Amino acid sequence: MADLWINVVKxxxxxxxxxxxxxxQLTEPLHDTSLRWSIPEPVAKIHRQVYHQIAEPLHAYSxxxxxxxxxxxxxxxxxxxxxxxxxxxxxxxVLNAVARAEDGYCQGMNFIAAVFxxxxxxxxxxYSTFVYLLHHKYMSxxxxxxxxxxxxxxxxxxxxxxxxxxxxxxxxxxxxxxVYLYGIEWFTTLFSCSSKIxxxxxxxxxxxxxxxxxxxxxxxxxxxxxEEQLMSMNFDDLLRDFKVITKQVDTYQIxxxxxxxxxxxxxxxxxxxxxxxxxxxxxxxxxxxxxxxxSVEWDKAIEFGSVAKxxxxxxxxxxxxxxxxxxxxxxxxxxxANEALCLAIWYGSIAVGVFALEMGAQVNDPDEWGLRPLHFxxxxxxxxxxxxxxxxxADVNLRGGNSSVIVPQWYMKSPVELVKVWTLSxxxxxxxxxxxxxxxxxxxxxHLFNNILKRQCSKCKCFLCPQRCYSAxxxxxxxxxxxxxxxxxxxxxxxxxxxxxxDEGDEDDCSTILSKQRCFSTWYCSIVDCHAKFSLFSKRxxxxxxxxxxxxxxxxxxxxxxxxxxxxSCCNAN
Amino acid sequence: xAHRKKVLLKVIILGDSGVGKTSLMNQYVNQKxxxxxxxxxxxxxxxxxxxxxEKLVTMQIWDTAGQERFQSLGVAFYRxxxxxxxxYDITNPISFEKLDSWRDEFLAQAGPRDPENxxxxxxxxxxxxxxxxxxxxxxxxxxxxxxxxxxPMSFFExxxxxxxxxxxxxxxxxxxxxxxxxxxxxxxxxxxxDLSGAATKxxxxxx
Lengths: 574, 207
Hints:
A: mainly alpha, Cyclin A, domain 1, Serine Threonine Protein Phosphatase 5, Tetratricopeptide repeat, 29 helices, B: alpha/beta, Rossmann fold, 34% helix, lipoprotein (chain B), Rab7 family GTPase (chain B), GTP binding (chain B), P-loop_NTPase (chain B), GTPase activity (chain B)
């Protein structure tokens, strides 16, 4: 393939020197000849491990995938040296993983995954490379439930054809041969169903080399190369022969033409027309979206905050990785612990968050977008997590957003900056802590007088009240994770030190109900409504029955076993 | 319409992913069956010339993708259709249940003049797998009657693999579509309707 690019660089008169240097890189021999394509390390590091977590477990889309797996490899023309039936399980696993990570499956994906496998990529690299294209090259938008993006993209393409090949565009239009009749297949399969396979390879090369608007330009070059033939055809001929003709065009010629076609003038140099169109359809919070990097079972366990279940799943994961070499196993464990932490933050499952940290999650590790756990704690307004992470050594001034992967935008901020500019949801509670309006340890609000006296730890930059908390503060910044006393951070699990070990048999039921509805926190009221408002800045009270902490407003006096006890609203009601 | 004029019928095949739309089309047009068809993305097209009542008819068959999320782009495919073939898989009850939504979606997007009497035909494919059947014949009969009591849709059980019922099914839909075209000729002022309208429309500037 390097030969193709050497010839291309010789032949093409590049409009943009920057683009020339990108293509020039493709002429260099590959470092690792077994890998046809490589992607940025931050993405590869995470997703190579994640693959083993999500490739096997079945989910809602698995049956759809199974149906397509047998109808995919046939796009590779004979002579076929490999027996493709044997490779179908591989394709299934890769697609199963991609569908989990994307939370959706759409036809077209199967051909791209097959191209990666056919080119010799190992399964985990086929998966990671595909996810990279989907997440960081905006391709995921092609496969979303609504076809708004695809429709918009095709319209833009048609407009561009009109601009650059006006005669052909007019001709096709007068015949009624619309862009939908070929464009859907072109763009959702990266031309793999409609051209020679080395064109798809070249397209992937160019996209991964960050060349702008690759698909648009290749599409137009493809039309340009068949223009003469297409001009003389009527609608019936077009229907019958269009695909045959486009399949015969020479790859080298298309690539040379594509690179001499200027990118869309209105699109940014970064993501081109794809990124411009994606802006309209991406979720508002993107890239702060829920991660689907662990199996559905993990996701459920984390959502319900079930430490026992996570413990069990973690052990199963340990068995999976136990045969791997030590360094790889360490990376894999850290990556999965990080992903579990991120999801725990998303759901606000503090207990699982603590567990993830104990299992080796790194509080300052960036995800594939360069975002860190604290960023998520901010946008999800999780004061518990802001505290937990900060006390565990998270850096509140560390910028998020990896510029090599995402466009520098407003989310390239440190947590402290982010909490001030985030407007898409209420982050008041997180802001209280990050801006130093309350003591990180005892939750005392800093009013007038205190505000002047409050102290800041020189290492971790946290704010503490001048009395007890500052002198007792042991800074965890830079200390090894396993030395941190997490029990202090998140309190003793409620049922463990129940002062009233009564003999009523319904104790277990009570605890399961409570753990689903309430968050155990030593910092403020665990009654859901109150918790959300972050209202306990004063003295905390402990319920004698469930041992959760509540604020004064939610404490009631109840006579239990002959004593007057303070009980929370929840236990009082039962 | 007695004179021998080239007539063009645009026939759309719709149905869930994997029910065998591509196989049916290829069996009908090329008399071939293969396990090696790729999943259809967007649409594929084949044409076949047949003679019905001494008329030469060109059937332009549009095989569409079964993936639902391509449905909303269907307008481009459905426009100007003369007939619609709905396909389900007799071993897959879900594909049968989805017939309603395929039919509704088609009528909504194609917007035919007379939706009540638009020529539909239903094919229950894969009868070669009779022992795995999960949609009984009575069910589809009832469904066809429920849609139109006076003139129930015709249905065929087919096997693209063994070529069972395929020829008859496509012959039937061609006849119904032609008939419908002629009826329209009678009832609608001649100036606004022409059976070969689809042909002149779609072949555009070429003639």
